[in-house]
Specification:
182 residues
Length: 182
């Protein structure tokens, strides 16, 4: 955990504020940019700390957005968690409230229907990029490479070919990770 200056806290808050407006499909879709900023640019977290923060938050009960607070906490304790959560929640919450009200009133227009249909592939692409970012440290590790790629392939296959709930696939991945298989 780092001691951040007031300017660094401001930068952390503003970066997550900007990411909030780009987080189409949820904050997890901006994880690659969070990684670039927190690990690559600022050096506040290592690859392992970043991945572990997301894994810990995703495994815990509650909203998926909690990983943002864990990242902030690991950067600068409670004030880091406050900066990241306020940054990621404030603009998106305000925008969603306004847009939802407007879209509800105009839901039958061609523009709203086209926008809704166009967001699906964008969200899917962002989620795939995030999944790959989280898998890369394990794919690079020779000890986990084959098992990680096998779990990824099996998950994709089961998702496409069956109606198994994603909850069971996440649980299965967690069990394999806890057993040290991946």
């Amino acid at each position: 955990m780092s001691e951040l200056s007031l300017a660094q806290f401001g930068g952390l808050f503003l970066h997550f504020l900007m990411l909030s407006l780009l987080s189409i499909g949820g904050a997890i879709t901006t994880a690659p940019e969070m990684h670039r900023y927190l690990v690559g640019q600022q050096g506040w977290l290592s690859d392992t700390q970043f991945t572990s923060s997301i894994a810990l938050a995703q495994a815990a009960p509650g909203p998926n957005i909690l990983f943002v607070a864990v990242l902030g906490w690991n950067v600068a304790g409670p004030l880091g968690a406050l900066a990241t959560m306020a940054g990621i929640m404030l603009p998106s919450t305000t925008l969603v409230l306004a847009a939802t009200r407007w879209a509800r009133e105009h839901r039958h227009t061609v523009g709203v229907r086209a926008f809704t249909a166009g967001m699906a592939p964008l969200t899917l692409g962002l989620l795939i990029a995030t999944g790959w970012l989280l898998a890369v440290p394990y794919v690079r590790d020779p000890e986990h490479r084959v098992a990680t790629l096998a779990v990824i392939a099996l998950t994709v296959l089961l998702t496409v070919k069956t109606r198994i709930s994603l909850v069971w696939l996440v649980l299965g991945g967690g069990v394999l990770g806890a057993l040290g298989i991946v």
